[in-house]
Design brief:
Elements: H1 3-12, H2 19-45, H3 48-68, H4 71-79, H5 85-103, E1 107-109, H6 124-147, H7 154-170, H8 177-210, H9 215-242, H10 251-277, H11 284-288, H12 292-327, E2 333-335, H13 338-366, H14 372-392, H15 398-430, H16 436-448, H17 451-464, H18 473-483, H19 490-522
Antiparallel strand pairs: 1-2
Length: about 525
């Protein structure tokens, strides 16, 4: 199936809702928040109108998280055809809500990632204005990024908002610049690590299964192990990240639990794959079908863990504002009432349903073509990278990791295609004479041989050939260019990279401006 065919199919699966209707639903959601807080909480909790505004801004932030940040969980699954757009949105929305409500936690840090010192704020009212400006700025930046089709980090957006508003409130000395340097380093580490791990798994699958003469036999042998590894990784990931607020465990314990689950998964999956492989065609399309159900589970688990962790990006500053009003001071940790958690969870689901498909298509099909095996590698790389980064204490972004994984498999596709093209050229040059049939026969045998057999054929051909195939540096460069085929859209690479780099500065600038505006309105 060509990439054009896939893109047409994806286009036909778009959720077609008029822009005016989507905007109306968002306004109704924000109006419902206003009515709830105003009539049920405004008087009792203190804060009055300011708390109503803060709750609406929190809802607006949640809408934008759903529109932008959830795409990395389901984009590869949709792009590979494992789920339709409608099914993916429904699945992700359900598990995002479940993750937020079940495992979202009861408390949240009032200052995200410790990037500013709250002790230097002093005045509770200034702290409230700071958090509102940070929340609003993060939401605005996400809205802008979604409009331009750039998947960015929600965490970095709110970090930039807190940094900018904090500097506006307390000066440059309020910021923890060492922590900011670590976050900045994650801009590079996250996508590179995710891309590298995804490419390694795709290379292994290509060598062990796709490049074998008997694809079905190779799949019957190796796919159960691959799915067991996926089970191990995802169970460990879910225990460490998705359930950490319900059941905090150490890495070793989580890893052992994941390993036990992987053994069970292997015992169950092995006979199932053996039965299913009996009816598969001996080609890539047939093998791809074995990865459909694992990808659905991956999308569900990633969405659950995302809801459990990233709901705090939407409601954390709101919880801090609410806590400041109810307790009359600044706390390092703030309780999250159920109504605040519900605002975050429902807002993410609504934003995903209304505006999420745009970024889902970006991640799933507009960077590079993903089949199910490639999407499997991206999902696996995302979970592994988060686990590694968590143990190293690196504040990485799940969005950066997943998108980096997509780029990783795309660039590996380019490398493999160029390498095979150069080998075909070498074969044609080394086979002497004008016997076109001999060349065609050799290439046909070469193409249907296993990876190890191909290497042996090339070694034998080079040994027996009298031709040295000397090429000048300029000629080698020309040859590489002739066989290079771009399988990653460079325009998407530059657009997304630019959006990542400016996320923290842009949200910080917006937050500083908003803080000055809010403080100006609130001063007598």
């Amino acid at each position: 199936m060509s990439i054009e065919t896939v893109e047409k199919q994806l286009g036909s699966m778009q959720i077609k809702v008029p822009d005016a209707a989507r905007l109306l639903v968002c306004l109704v959601f924000l109006f419902a928040i206003m009515m709830f807080v105003n009539y049920f909480l405004g008087v009792e909790s203190g804060g009055g109108t300011f708390l109503v505004v803060a709750a609406m801004v929190g809802g607006y932030m949640a809408l934008n998280i759903g529109a932008n940040d959830v795409a990395n969980n389901v984009g590869p699954t949709v792009g590979s055809g494992a789920l339709t757009m409608v099914s993916a949105v429904a699945l992700a929305a359900a598990f995002e809500i479940a993750g937020a409500i079940i495992a979202g936690g009861e408390v949240v840090s009032t200052i995200k990632k410790g990037i500013i010192d709250p002790a230097m704020i002093g005045d509770p009212s200034t702290f409230v204005w700071l958090m509102l400006a940070a929340l609003f700025a993060g939401a605005l930046w996400l809205n802008i990024a979604t409009y331009f089709g750039a998947p960015v980090s929600t965490t970095h957006s709110i970090v930039g908002g807190v940094l900018g508003a904090g500097i506006a409130a307390g000066g440059w000395q309020i910021a923890n610049w060492d922590q900011m340097a670590t976050i900045a380093a994650s801009w590079l580490i996250s996508p590179l690590l995710g891309g590298l791990i995804a490419a390694i798994f795709l290379y292994l699958i290509t060598r062990l299964i796709v490049d074998q003469r008997d694809l079905v036999g190779a799949a019957r042998r190796y796919v159960p192990y691959l799915l067991a590894v996926m089970g191990w990784v995802f169970l460990t990931y879910l225990t460490l990240k998705g359930l950490k607020k319900l059941w905090p465990v150490e890495f070793v314990t989580a890893g052992l639990l994941g390993l036990a689950g992987a053994v069970i998964i292997f015992a169950v999956i092995n006979p199932m794959v053996a039965r299913a492989s009996g009816s598969l065609s001996n080609d890539r399309a047939g093998i791809n079908s074995l990865f459909t159900i694992p990808l659905v589970f991956a999308a569900a688990l990633l969405s659950f863990a995302h809801g459990a962790n990233d709901v705090a990006n939407a409601v954390g500053p709101l919880a801090a504002i609410y806590d400041s009003f109810t307790n009359g001071g600044i706390s390092a940790k703030a309780a999250i009432p159920f109504w605040i958690m519900a605002v975050g969870a429902l807002g993410i689901a609504v934003g995903l349903a209304l505006y999420g498909p745009k970024l889902i298509r970006t991640v799933g099909s507009e960077i590079t073509h993903l089949d199910k095996m490639r999407a499997f590698c991206v999902a696996l790389a995302a979970a592994i990278t988060v686990i590694i980064a968590s143990q190293l204490g690196l504040p990485v972004s799940s969005t950066h990791i997943a998108v980096g994984g997509v780029f990783g498999v795309g660039f590996l596709r380019e490398y493999l295609h160029a390498n095979r093209s150069r080998l075909s050229h070498e074969i044609k040059e080394r086979i002497k004479g004008d016997d076109a049939e001999a060349v065609a026969s050799f290439l046909g045998t070469f193409g249907s041989s296993a990876f190890a057999e191909q290497e042996a054929m090339i070694r034998k051909l080079r040994k027996n050939s009298c031709s040295k195939l000397y090429l000048a540096k300029k000629d080698r460069k020309t040859l590489r260019s002739a066989y290079h085929k771009e399988m990653v859209k460079r325009s998407m690479l530059f657009k997304i990279a630019a959006a990542w780099v400016i996320t923290v500065p842009a949200s910080a600038f917006l937050a500083a401006m908003l803080f000055y505006m809010i403080r100006g309105f609130m001063l007598p």
